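Posting this for the archive.
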Amino acid sequence: MHDGRPVGPAEGRLAPDLNHDHVITLESNPHREVETMSRTVTVGLDGSPESRAAAEWAAREAQLRSLPLKIVYVPEPLPKHLAQAPLLGPETHQRWTEQMPSESAEGIRLRHPGIEVITETLTGTVADILCEAAGSADLLVLGSRGFGGMGGFLVGSVSLAVVARAERPVVLVRAGEQAADEHTMDPAGVPSAATPFRPVVLGLDTDHPDDTLLEFAFDAAVRRQAPLRAVHAWPEPPTSFYRFPGDAELYDSLEREHAAALAEVLRPWQQKFPGVHVVEASRCGSAAQVLVNAARDASLAVVGRRIRTGSFGAHIGHVTHAALHHITAPVAVVAHG
């Protein structure tokens, strides 16, 4: 994927000043050519608790990757009825627009010494701006709200739209996510960011394995020095509902067959990343439920999204949709062909 070193500026251009705040106003234009920039970890910030948690996670990820952190702030237009209020008018809104990203960046610099932080304030349709920002980033990080109805997480329409359209990895981080949540407990049973990382969990379709998805997951495990748990689900045989004679033998045969298929897909990647301890988990059951259960103790869950072109537009598969709504850990959605 890459060797983790920062990439310098494009030839013939000057590198930006370290930790410089850029206020750039751009109208969203899907036909505008995206400027080629140095690689970054980019986070969408709107001032909400979930976006602030996403910014902290993105800062830690930028340090793991030895890359700058870019904070992209897309202010919402001020409603007309508020624009006329003396205390909440355009001037107050403008000050907030200017201060919020710069203050957030300064806080990150204090909590993560040595990290390069760049801020951009952009105007336009939020989903369009974030998709453009993702195009020039190693990955884009967004916040996801807390629990909603039926025990699942609330994933906003903007986040879902970006996940469905972006062609670079997008990570969704829950409100309240802390660094210690990604690590094992210390010997006293106390949460700690100084202990080893919890496993990286990869949801894998052995019938259609993709190199982009596999490389992202192995790379994430290497950077965290964490084990990689590769999860594959296979459906229960139809005869199991009727308890025919020989069902046990059929089940055992299918179990061995699917375990062998998973091992075959992973073998070349284990050779490429020999330092990663891989746990192969081939389970019978619903793919979505198997993955959600396997990711209960994950530091990061990694799922794929097939890029589809056609009249039906962007699409998020049901397994990825379930991961976004039911996995507590940060979820990386990796688009692939």
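The chain is about 35% helix and 15% strand. The chain has two domains: 1-7+16-177, 191-329.
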